[in-house]
Amino acid sequence: MKLSFSYYLNEDVIFLAHDLLGKVLFTEIDGNITAGIIVETEAYFGVQDKASHAYGGRRSDRTDTLYHQGGIAYVYLCYGIHHLFNVVTGIKDAPHAVLIRAIEPLIGKEIIEVRRNMPVAKAAVSSGPGSAAKALGIDRSFNKKDLTGEEVWIEDHGIRYAADAIAATPRVGVAYAQEDALLPWRFFVKGNKYVSKPNKV
Questions:
Q1: pLDDT tens-digit series, residues 140-185
Q2: Of the candidates 80, 112, 92, the residue with the CA atom closest to the CA atom of residue 46
Q3: Backbone φ/ψ region at 137: left (φ over 0), alpha (ψ -120 to 50), beta
């Protein structure tokens, strides 16, 4: 059920952002396994995408991870507060990534509740990329982790959504990206309460 290394080498990051909906993101930390169904994603299209950290070929200690071959995690700190978890995709030196924006808690719910100090019945427990990462215990130490390893991975549990059950809208918080801010590269499962706002089409 674990996604193979070859899955992440697909160079169509828009397709992957859509296809990852319904897949299950796992972490194992100190023997504790937690997991959630991916219900919201955003695609970032490498050097051409003004919203991407790698736009124009920018490289830094932080963004170096994006230039690796697909199949690893890219985790960075946003606003000095939230860790955001991204799936690096494509081939080496083509810095595409999919941001995981929300999960629906599935496994290890009691642990998720402790990490978030709230019940899993509350949408805020894993709604939005910072909350989703915290719910699964993901921090900066997960940066560059192998997504086919034993600490963080994604599985296919056969969860599929009909085309009309998935919304495609502009990404959140990327107004600086000018015309690229309007691209409909944010995907989410309609009606799922864990999807971050705006959650209407």
A1: 999 999 999 999 999 999 999 999 999 999 999 999 999 999 999 9
A2: 92
A3: left
C-alpha 89/C-alpha 35 separation (Å) is: 21
Q: Is the dihedral of CA 188, 189, 191, 193 positive or negative?
A: negative
For the chain, helix (H) and strand (E) counts, in that order, are 3, 8
Query: Contact at 8 Å (CB) between 25 and 154?
Result: yes
C-alpha 196/C-alpha 127 separation (Å) is 5
Backbone angles phi, psi at 66, to 5 degrees: -65, -25
Q: Which of 72, 65, 75, 73 lies closest to 95, judged by CA?
A: 65
**C-alpha to C-alpha distance for 50 and 38, rounded to whole angstroms:** 25
Q: Rounded CA gap, 3 and 201, in Å?
A: 30
- Rounded CA gap, 18 and 10, in Å? 13
User: CA distances (Å), 154 to each of 5, 52, 63, 135, 144, in order?
Assistant: 11, 23, 22, 15, 15
Distance of CA 69 to the CA centre of its chain: 17
Confirm whether pTM is higher than 0.90. Answer: yes
The amino acid at 168: A
